[in-house]
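Quick note —
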Amino acid sequence: MEEKKMPHNLILENKNKLSITQVEDVDTFDESKIVLFTAEDTLVIEGYDLHIQKLDVAGGELSITGEIVSILYSGRDSYGHKGKGFFKKMLK
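Predicted structure written out below.
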């Protein structure tokens, strides 16, 4: 039986608020770059004064504020994904 995947959504408001669903983990973050993982891809958000306002890993929701300059999707393994992100390492 084929597994039904939930939709992945990005909502960008005025280039300064980004809401993302189906987030599995955050790998790294600082004020200029946030790297996170969805079920299928790695997502790199770049900008200025970036802040994570909400992170619900269990629900897969992430909210970011700041000046968002770029959003880049890459394959799951193309950004050096090693299987454990920042928060999984912290909760180990």
